[in-house]
Amino acid sequence: MVNFDHYYKIATKMEDLKKKSEIDMNDREIVFSKSIKAGKRIYYLDVKKNRRDEMFLAITESKKIVQGDGEDPQVSFEKHKIFLYREDFDKFM
């Protein structure tokens, strides 16, 4: 008989370790960060370094979505990301 609890615990621990390493990696690679509020949207501009120590711009749009009326509306956020690398900067200017 297969012990699914054992495999579930291992998978959960691996997922927790993955999330922790992603958080640590994101904290280390951000060089500059700015947020801009615009109505229902917030734009995040992050200058980051990749593993090869090259900088790039990450632009994130976060849009607030409210569904339903009354006392208990459902609130969620829709996110879109764009990564702009140094070799493409001149095409945006």
From TrEMBL:
Record keywords: DNA-binding
Pfam families: DUF3276
GO MF, one annotated term: purine-rich negative regulatory element binding
InterPro entries: PUR-bd_fam
Protein family per UniProt: Belongs to the PUR DNA-binding protein family.
Protein name as it appears in the record: DUF3276 family protein
